[in-house]
TrEMBL record:
Coiled coil, from the record: 8-35
Keyword Coiled coil: yes
Stated name of the protein: Mis12-Mtw1 protein family protein
Keyword annotations of the record: Coiled coil
Protein species of origin: Sinomicrobium oceani
Record's keyword annotation contains Coiled coil: yes
């Protein structure tokens, strides 16, 4: 009978240790989930900043092209033609 008691006690100890380990792992999982969410937020913010800088760069590039830099005369002409077409389209819509 004492063997059965020892086995039951041993099983209880093992179950108790497993439950404790499971609780520790749950807490670690929760912490990692929070860190992942924080990291995703930081990444989104950085991507937003990068997008902003890319837009500023493109605007600056366009401004330099409009000023007539020798590097992008063709690009400047194409952009001006596009702008003229857009203006013509707006005028046509307004006159309808």
């Amino acid at each position: 009978m004492s063997d059965i008691t020892e086995i039951v006690d041993s099983l209880e100890n093992r179950v108790s240790r497993l439950l404790h380990k499971m609780e520790i792992l749950k807490q670690a999982n929760l912490k990692l989930t929070e860190e992942l969410a924080d990291s995703a937020k930081v990444i989104r913010e950085k991507e937003s900043v990068i997008t902003g800088w890319e837009e500023k760069y493109n605007a600056l590039k366009l401004a330099n092209a409009m000023l007539g830099s020798n590097e992008s005369k063709t690009e400047t002409k194409l952009k001006i033609n596009t702008l003229i077409r857009e203006i013509d389209s707006c005028i046509a819509q307004l006159s309808e």
